[in-house]
Amino acid sequence: MSEDVTYADLKFQDSSEMENIQEFDQVGVKAPPAPSHVWRRRALALILLCLLLLIGLAVLGSMFYLTSKIEMEKLEKLQNFKDKLQSNVSLQLKYNMDNLEKIRNLSSTLQEMATKLCYELCRTEPEHKCKPCPEKWVWHEDSCYREFKEDETWQQSDSTCSAHNASLVKIKNKSILKFIKSKELYGYWLGLSPRKDYKPWKELDETIISSDWFTGNTSDLNGVMYCGYVYSKHVYYGPCTEEKNAICEKLANPVKIESTLMNEEPGERG
Fold first, then answer.
1. Residue 260 lies in a domain
2. Among residues 7, 101, 211, 259, which is most buried (max CB within 10 A)?
């Protein structure tokens, strides 16, 4: 009978085993451990670091904005200063140019006045110190004239004028024409170009529009050439080898303003 297993025994055994299993589960097997506090601290530190980074970026952004704004304001002030400076420089340059023009006009006026005054002084004292021509030369407008009463060929007369940095007279306007007429010259070579063919005489007035005034080289005159000379109020042509007087002209020097106020004793000019 001991070996007979009843339903009650099996049920009891099963109940015991179930209790043992439950007890083993409650006592022998441990539940999973809770999350560590270290990881929580690390997560919190990471969050704080991110917040600090965000705050830092915000501060840096604000500083950059403020710095940029300040620099832009400085740049704008510098640009305004530059524009104002350029405007002042332009105004100063214009003012200087206006003054320079006034000075030029004043200088020109003074020069004209000095020239007229000197001309009047030379009428009473031909060798006044203000005279813009060398001694023995006659002053007319902006040129100096001198008669050389030396019997010379046309070529020799031309060389004589060249030796005084002058040339034979060319009558190219009415003012010179009137001046030459007033001199009443008889037999004076003129600066007309030598010609191979003879040319009839003409009135002195007709020479103003003439294209015959000399512009070439006088170093060599081959063969028989004809040269022009003034005789009273006419122009004649004769062989260039004839001997006549010469009248030369050259540009006058500017009249010195200070010299118009200085008198000169006779014999001072060299």
1. no
2. 259
